[in-house]
Amino acid sequence: MQSTPRLEVNPKMTPVSKETAVAQLNKQRELYSRIVEAFPPGIEMAFAYGSGAFQQNNSLDQSKNMLDFIFVVNKPKLWHHQNLKRHPHHYSFLKRLGPHTVARIQERYGAGVYFNTLVPMEGRLIKYGVISTAQLITDLLDWETLYISGRLHKPVSLVIIPSNEHLLTAMKVNLQSAVHAALLLLPDMFTEEQLYSTIAGLSYAGDFRMAIAEDSNKVQNIVRPNLALFRQMYGPILLSDEHLTWWQDEGQLEQALTFHSRHHHLKCLPGQVLYGLLMQKYQCSICSENHMGDTAL
Predict the structure, then answer these.
(1) Residue 33 and residue 217: Cα distance in Å, rounded?
(2) For 203-212, which contacts have Cβ atoms below 8 Å and span 24 or more sequence positions?
(3) How many Å apart are CA 136 and CA 237, to the nearest integer?
(4) Pair type for strands 252-255 and 244-247
(5) What GO annotations for molecular function exist for this entry (predicted)?
(6) Nearest 5 degrees, angle CA 252-CA 183-CA 2?
(7) What is the number of alpha carbons within 13 Å of residue 184 lying toward its C-beta?
(8) How many angstroms from the chain centroid is the CA of residue 71?
(9) How far is CA 273 from CA 59, 111, 187, 240, in A?
(10) What whole-number percentage of the chain has pLDDT above 90?
(11) Does residue 283 have a pLDDT over 90?
(12) At residue 12, does pLDDT exceed 60?
């Protein structure tokens, strides 16, 4: 069995004691709570994510990074109406068009998320996106955009824990789908870091920003400092997968590359992914038939 690669440690990152880490975490949670409490009621779920919330290898001082939040609301139009009254300066010129237009833009364009950015709150700059509960559930189950569902493949800091059973179930399915997709991309033997890197990279696949505007090592920078959090997220799923063997102490995994196991992972993929695979197969068949026809002529 191959040995687990030693994780690189950034020498500029000063190690802290467990007590200090807990104190910092509590302080961080209090900050997030104060920020979220400044917004109108009606938020079903709120979480912080990104380099402002979690340590990354290429970021030495989290406090200098923008804090990113996602607010999940049941009634976007009503929530924007209340938020425009409370925080009109958060919005761009679109605020002049009213909450109905803001909510319509949110739900009809892009990934179903409306962002306000560069907002100063509690001594930090924040960016927050608003998405409807229904839109998020759809994305979690089907990966229609893999935008917020992809962010939830990685560790986030929940500020408001959802009580909606459908949303909680969809969040669990989203993690399971990520494991199925990653296993189809991995060989028979691999490390935990390779697994989590594959999962974290799913939402970046085909993203031109990874090649042009953003750090090409972004996935590793996210995964390596947060391996324990990834294990906490995915450990129960890995333990319950009968097609997988996990040596936890060594951080090694082995999967069966049989037809049965591959079929199992394929049929558990989200609907949008399966549709894409079917369309790709259909297009390949058409191209093959056209090529054969041209050859015959």
Answers:
(1) 31
(2) 203/146, 203/147, 203/149, 203/150, 203/151, 203/153, 204/150
(3) 22
(4) antiparallel
(5) phosphatidate cytidylyltransferase activity
(6) 25
(7) 20
(8) 14
(9) 33, 16, 20, 23
(10) 69
(11) no
(12) no
The pLDDT value recorded for residue 214 is 53
pLDDT for the residue 288: 52
Minimum mean pLDDT range among 29-38, 193-202, 272-281, 285-294: 285-294
Distances from the Cα of 164 to the Cα of 44, 229, 230, 254, angstroms: 8, 24, 24, 35
| Residue 230: its H or E element | helix 227-240
Backbone angles phi and psi of 131, in degrees to 5 = -135, 145
Of residues 62, 76, 143, the one with CA closest to residue 113: 76
Coil, strand or helix: which one is 244? strand
Q: Is the pLDDT of residue 8 over 80?
A: no
Following DSSP, what letter does each residue of 55-96 receive, concatenated? -BTTBS-GGGSPEEEEEEES-HHHHHHHHHHH-GGGS-GGGG
Contact residues for 210 (Cβ-Cβ < 8 A; gap 6+): 204, 216, 218
- For residues 29 and 205, the model is more confident at 29
